[in-house]
Write a structure and sequence with these properties.
By secondary structure, the chain is mostly helical. It has 5 helices and no strands.
Length: 138
């Protein structure tokens, strides 16, 4: 459901609604967290496919795809019961691949926000006794 601009916008709307619903129904967090994980991974895959096949994605579609991924990252974090080091590093690995894909596709306007999110996550891990950012392998 990320193959076109319209599909991405529709999925983003559904995800926004699910996040609003989550605030009223916290028992549904595990299911939404899994959905957010799948959305992030699908966005990463879509960015990679476009790069491999040499297809040109319109700017609007690329931007919507990356905004969808950012929203899914927010949802993933909101659904975590209490982020453990392992969970945090998992999300940071996904963020790294999103950042790499955005840069490869030329969506440089999204890179600072993704890089800042990645940096904050790694610093949070470090503050919890985790490895330093240099010790973390992508």
């Amino acid at each position: 459901r990320t193959g076109s601009l319209q599909e991405c916008e529709g999925l983003r709307g559904e995800l926004e609604e699910s996040l609003r619903h989550l605030m009223a129904n916290p028992s549904e967090r595990p299911e939404l967290r899994l959905t957010c994980d799948r959305v992030i991974r699908t966005c990463i895959q879509r960015l990679g496919e476009e790069e491999e096949e040499g297809k040109k994605t319109c700017e609007g579609h690329l931007g919507t795809l990356l905004r969808l991924a950012e929203l899914a990252c927010d949802g993933y974090q909101a659904c975590a019961p209490s982020p453990s080091l392992r969970q945090q590093l998992y999300l940071e690995r996904l963020l790294f691949h999103l950042l790499k894909g955005a840069a490869a596709r030329g969506a440089l306007e999204f890179c600072p926000a993704l890089a800042e999110r990645l940096r904050r996550g790694l610093e949070l891990c470090r503050g919890e006794g985790g490895p330093t950012p240099r010790e973390v392998e992508a």
